[in-house]
Amino acid sequence: MKRIVLAIILFSSPALAQVQAPGTQEFTLNQPTQDLSLEGREFETIYRTDYVPDTCYRSEVQGTRPECRTEYDRQCHTEFQQQCGYRNYPVCQTVPRNVCRTQQVCRTVNDRVCNSHGCTNVPRRECRMENRCTTQMDQVCHTQQRWECQTFPQTICQNVPRQVCVNVPNVVQVPYSCQKPVQVAIGQNLKLRTVVKITVRFVNFTETGATGDRLNAKLEGDQIRFSGNSTRFLYQIVDQSRSERMLSGTEKIIEADFSIRATPLKTLSDFESILIDEGKLGFDRLSFRMSSFPSAPFKGNLNLVQNRALGRDLVIVDRDFESRALTGQGNVQTLMLSPLGASLLRDKTHRVKISLMLDGEALRKGAINAEILNQLRNKPVELGFEANPN
Length: 390
Prior knowledge:
CATH topology of the domain at 274-361 and 377-387: Immunoglobulin-like
Structural class: mainly beta
Distance between the termini: 97 Å
Number of strands: 16
Helix content: under 10%
Order of helices and strands: HHEEEEHEEEEHEEEEEEEHE
């Protein structure tokens, strides 16, 4: 009984249940560069095997028991069915038909010719057209229906169930006293100690100054995680590097550099107040004026349609582009059309629509407190006009 209690105490002990003790350090971006130190320890639990009383079971055969199942026999018999219906039979008869035709009939006649020497008969051929008729027999048929019945044999089969029972051994579980091995935790050994040296670089400290927000660096396994809940700045890891080496079989050191950029939320919110106007369309480019060029990453979409007098309008460009596709001089930005798949435009009227909006994917990449982006409406800034290339 004492061993059982000891096992329960050891398994429920928080110290023994701990597998890893990740290190956490809070810091603020109040200087361009600062160093952090984290430490993590991973333990393995040591066990011993104890035997405690238990109840075991063995299988024994005690007599027999009936086991039944249903089987099916296939039985068939022949039935005769009568099928009746009308059938068509041909009925024919011979009908006389009078056939007449006109033909030439000739005969020889003698003319009596007399002169001083006497009289004599002179033959002469005489022809005329006569109508002659003959009787011709034709066979005329038609269909006549008769009601007939026929008897056909049909085989009818069905499955007839029958019960089949056999006696099988009756197996029961019989309890008996035995001892059961249990693993009892008796302590812990240090498996691995990880020491992390971190250098944090605040890349735009000169622009922003000390932000005063508290961030956390945490060691999870051998991974370094950053977190924060600032509502004034978006913090992003823009670059990182790390190296690690084993000092011994149970000690590892990691050295890591992280570059963090802080973007004020106001800078992101002010994006939708940017104005774009004075759009001009060239044969190979599009230019427009921006009231200010945003420092936050953004992307755009260009929809360029050529008006046609006959037929459907022709879509020249309907594609997204990144902010680096814009080249500017002052507040005027130029977008070349050839990288977007458009060749030289024709001298026709075109409808132009350009939309700019914050690049959410770029903002979330490496973000420490990405939830701050939920406060942004990210409403696109748009410009639309019609123009002929010039």
